[in-house]
Amino acid sequence: MFAAPGHRRKGVACLAVAVLVLLCFNTMTLEWIVMHKDMAFFASNHGPKPTTASTVENESNPIVHVTGIALLQSTSSTEMPTTTPSPPTTSAPVAPTPTSTTVLPTPAKSTPSPPTTLPSSQPTTSAAPPRATPSNLPLTTPPLETIGFETVAIVTYVPDKHVKFINQTQHMLWSSWNYSIHHVDPRARGRTDLIIFAHRNVMEEMPPSCIRLAHPALPPVPSSNRDRCFVVEQTPAADNYWHRYGFMFSLIYLAEPTFQPLLMSYDRLLRTDTDVVITPAFLTFRPRRFVVGRGGYMYHDYTKARIKELAVDINMTHQGLHSVGSTWFGNATLTLQMVPKMLEVAKFILDSPKYNVEQGFPRWHIGVTSMYAGELVVNHFIPKDNVWVNSASLDVYSNGIEKTINVYHSHCWPGSSGFFTKSEYEDGEYSVDKFPRESLDIAVIKDYFMAMVLYGY
């Protein structure tokens, strides 16, 4: 009934081994539990905190934090802290942290897209103009999505004693503006108003639908996004200096303090002559750079050298940008800052015994003093890379064959010949009998110009 002594000794030995194995196993289990809990405690108390706007200092921080969390994760999500990091403060969405992966996607940088205009600003008949890119823009340039709805004022001046300017205002500028605002959905663009500054003797000849502003120092508050036309009286005093050079009357109102509140209520200004039409495409044209049209005054190296010499004499900067047109489109504040300096430069030229010497056009012609002054101030105020001399879709010839959808602004240049010319228009050569509406293809700029003049649609 009793085991032999040898068997008892073997049993005791087996029991002892079993006890030792059990003790080792329990010790390892305890150490693993403690270590695992220590890791959880470390992650919750010393690991990365949820990423917020205050903890993200640059684009590289979020990826460091996210990777740290991923490396501490276990395949068992129940034993890890349940706090989920907030998404980084970037415009790109970041995928939520999965429990079984160790690598999260890198947050994308929020970089403004290059400017996109609707329609294309590059007529098919001309070389593509340079496009602004984020790398060559001022730091203050807003993202594209915030500038598409900027408010714009188209501004011009109508002097006294010139019926031709009245006709141009009514049948070119106003009629094309009126056509355009009714052919572009206002929900897809910012407001574009037309402001006509006019001598008191021609106020009644302005388009009757335009609102007469008796107190321009108090800009009207828009009740909606509706585009409006305003007429503001601007009658130069009899002793005004610029009676000796009447071209400057088309600009001096921009330096008049009384009009500053009205003009500053807009994001951008388009300063233009009256013998122009705008197209529906202009209403969505919001370039990042300051845009000027073509300047038909610079043809000789002598003229370029003389303007640079003038810049040195009056302590201004010339960056080598020539042929700056009189049509300006850009930030309202910047435009209003440049005009007073432009008047100073023009006055200096006219009063200077050195520069007020007629040498004939185009060598050096006093009749284009305003153009010389405009070129100087644009070079002085704006970095060259932020100026777009856009002859492809601004100041386009009125008898051109460009597609209207690729043009923003067309100009009836003096002395031009072809389908539509200023001289024939002023002589009454164009009529509805000669040019029936159905014969005009307004998809082409020359026909569009004619249709605006004769029909307004």
List the helices and strands in order: HHHEHEEEHEEEHEHHEEEHH
Taking the sheet with the most strands, its summary is: 8 strands, mixed
Structural class: alpha/beta
Termini separation: 124 Å
Number of alpha- plus pi-helical segments = 10
Classify the helix fraction into a percent range. Answer: 25-40%
Low-pLDDT segments: 1-5, 23-146
The rounded Rg comes to: 36 Å
Average pLDDT rating: 76
At the first level of CATH, the class of the domain at 146-454 is Alpha Beta
* Outline type: globular
- Counting DSSP E segments of at least 2 residues, the number of strands comes to 11
Biggest β-sheet: strands ordered side by side in the sheet: 3-4-2-1-5-8-7-9
Strand content: 5-15%
Give structural notes.
It is a single chain. The chain is of the alpha/beta class. It has a domain at 146-454: Spore Coat Polysaccharide Biosynthesis Protein SpsA, Chain A (Alpha-Beta Complex), CATH 3.90.550. Helices cover 31% and strands 11% of the residues. The strands form two sheets. Strands 3-4-2-1-5-8-7-9 form an eight-stranded mixed β-sheet. Helix 4 links the parallel strand 1 (152-158) and strand 2. Helix 4 (163-181) packs across helix 10 (445-454). The longest helix has 41 residues, at 5-45. The chain starts with a helix and ends with a helix.
